[in-house]
UniProtKB/TrEMBL annotation:
Subunit structure: Homodimer.
Protein's name according to its UniProt entry: FMN dependent NADH:quinone oxidoreductase
Record keyword NADP present: no
GO terms, molecular function: electron transfer activity; FMN binding; oxidoreductase activity, acting on NAD(P)H as acceptor; oxidoreductase activity, acting on NAD(P)H, quinone or similar compound as acceptor
Top EC group: oxidoreductase
Signal sequence bounds: none
Flavodoxin-like fold domain sequence ranges: 1-197
Catalytic activity: 2 a quinone + NADH + H(+) = 2 a 1,4-benzosemiquinone + NAD(+); N,N-dimethyl-1,4-phenylenediamine + anthranilate + 2 NAD(+) = 2-(4-dimethylaminophenyl)diazenylbenzoate + 2 NADH + 2 H(+)
Database matches in InterPro entries: Flavodoxin_fold (IPR003680), Flavoprotein-like_sf (IPR029039), FMN-dep_NADH:Q_OxRdtase_AzoR1 (IPR050104), NADH:quinone_OxRdtase_FMN_depd (IPR023048)
EC number, UniProt record: 1.6.5.-, 1.7.1.17
Encoding gene, per UniProt annotation: acpD
Function: Quinone reductase that provides resistance to thiol-specific stress caused by electrophilic quinones. Also exhibits azoreductase activity. Catalyzes the reductive cleavage of the azo bond in aromatic azo compounds to the corresponding amines.
Keywords associated with the record: Flavoprotein, FMN, NAD, Oxidoreductase
Length: 202
């Protein structure tokens, strides 16, 4: 069984989402010692954002020579995702949504014919067999019923994207309010880490 671990926070060791995603992976590794783990840090090895040349190459047009390494990176990222049975994603909220580094990764994973296809009844996800666990960190409180709920475009976006490719039951561990104050941060992180240790085995 293979696990793909993705981190996207720019805060390094100070990141809550990184701490929680690492705890998730540790829990699954302890439960299944034979688990094969691949790790990709999207801030250490960032992917370029899509350009017209990328889209043209995807349609079969000749790619400029300078785009070659990036197209190879795209293929590697997609293959990592396709090969994984479990995907763990560290996703902090930046300005009410996902980091741009994570968006660039998603753009390489949502590929027609690979993770979704269009049929007579519309789009059909092709990645339905995967287990996806997302570690979310948010500076404030954005849950249902909170004053800022309408600004929540992190969890909602990821649920929509994952459902589009066939992953309809992702698991979320959420640390909210980490910028409200030290006590809020400590309590939220502790609760998220506890939730990580309670995950079912791989």
């Amino acid at each position: 069984m293979k696990l793909l671990h993705i981190d996207s926070s720019v805060l390094g060791p100070h990141s809550v989402s990184r701490q929680v995603s690492a705890a998730i992976v540790d829990r699954l590794r302890a439960a299944t010692p034979s688990l094969e783990i691949a790790y990709r840090d999207l801030t250490q090895t960032p992917l370029a954002h899509l350009s017209g040349s990328h889209l043209a190459a995807a349609q079969g047009a000749p790619a400029p020579a300078e785009l070659g390494p990036d197209l190879a990176a795209s293929a590697a990222v997609l293959n990592e995702f396709l090969d994984a049975d479990i995907v763990v994603i560290g996703a902090p909220m930046y300005n009410f949504t996902i980091p741009s580094q994570l968006k660039a990764w998603i753009d390489r994973v949502l590929v027609a014919g690979k993770t979704f296809k269009y049929g007579a009844n519309g789009p059909e996800g092709l990645a339905s067999g995967k287990r996806v666990i997302v570690a979310i960190s948010r500076g404030g409180y954005y849950g249902a019923g909170t004053p800022a709920a309408s600004l929540e475009h992190l969890e909602t976006y990821l649920r929509g994207v994952l459902a589009f490719i066939g992953i309809t039951s992702p698991e979320f561990i959420i640390a909210d309010g980490i910028q409200v104050g030290p006590e809020h941060r400590e309590k939220s992180l502790a609760n998220a880490l506890q939730a990580a240790t309670s995950l079912r085995a791989a």
